[in-house]
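Person: Please work through this fold.
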Amino acid sequence: MHCQKRCASDMFAPVRAVASLFALGLMMALFHRVTAGAALEARATLALGFLLLAAFLGGDLAKRARLPRITGFLLAGFAVGPAWLGLLRRDEVEALSFIGDAALALIALSAGSELTLRTFREGGVALARLAGAALVGPFLAVTLVLLTVSPWFPLTTHQRFGNAVAIALTLGAVSAAGSPAVAMGMTTELAARGPVARTLLSVTVLKDVALVLLFTLGLAAARSVTTDGGLNVRVVAGALLVLAGSLAVGVLFGYALSAYGRRMARDTALALLAAAFVAAEAARLAHLETLVVGLAAGFYLETFSPTESERIRRELARGSLLVYLVFFALAGANLRVGALADQWPWVLLLVGLRAVTLRYGLRWAGRDPRVAPALARYGWWGLVPQAGIALWLAQVARRAFPQWGVSLAALIAAMIAVHEVIGPFCFRRALERAGEVREAVGDADAPAGGAAIVPVGGGS
């Protein structure tokens, strides 16, 4: 009898969740209308509360549907955001971006603390091959294909060939970008601490840092073939300064957190929260990249103060659900898919090219015996997620190309939106096939368990 009641309760749980979402939507619509003339701060605070409730319910529904909770957070944020139902206004979402940046700083700090010098020493060659394949493959494929179809591609159809080269190089570089936030979020959600999960996170971070150099070098080379006024060289040089400044500020924040932890071991959670908001504000005022600041701070802590790094990881783990809920709900509300409706064939072409080159690039990397077979066969799924650096590169491209930067940034935003939605599912698929998720779906090609996986630093 008790089992029957519990089964019946579980059966109607999704219905209750959908009903709760519907009721919440009606309340949001009502308050959206009532507060139309209120101050922005008040509207944004109310919008944040509704957004988090909607995202939490969306994450619960996604989990019941055997999808990543992060996907539910993203889709719920998109549904109530200005791009679809409009229950959150654009100015409210922009006002809340500061909170999203603070959440990103915490996620990046956690991701950076997962990187160790030992990982680079033991698996340096394998990491270099994996990161190189995931970086060079999409970059070359997208660049060459876009140059081939430049007479028909909307952004280059009326451009001289030199301008088409600059656009192709930009989209090629953006196609190579990943998402440390999704990688860290899925690793935490699945409690995956195996070699494949750790290596995918390391490869994503290394690739994104190297990508900034590739992006700026590509644009600098394109300067000689673009028409006068087609490319703003100062913006290109500024991107390198932003990277260097972000790394420097991140090291300073890492040192400050380490010093605080050694002298005052109490209230670590409060200190982390304060540091996240300070880092986000510092990055905003100095026009730095919050993701890089957090990664550098976490890497500094793990390298020079491992005891404090371990304490910080424990605190971050306790509040991880709320942090990911805030970040991915706001990321979903910020999704811009306007260009997707007009240019969906080109977006799908770029997405497909990226997936194919990631797959065969990692197969090439797997020829080295120091690369784990599971990474060579399934790791490309974990590199599909995209956001973070790609969003920043889109902003740089918009300023670097005064004449067509807005259209280029819109196309990049549409491509990122597709990868943000499918990325968490792809990352989980990589870990399931590698045998690092306990509730993994059975697969005939997957190894029997995590023990069959060869660490990156070992032999095959």
Summary: DSSP finds 19 helices and no strands in the chain. The two ends are 53 Å apart (CA to CA). The CA atoms of residues 293 and 367 lie 34 Å apart.
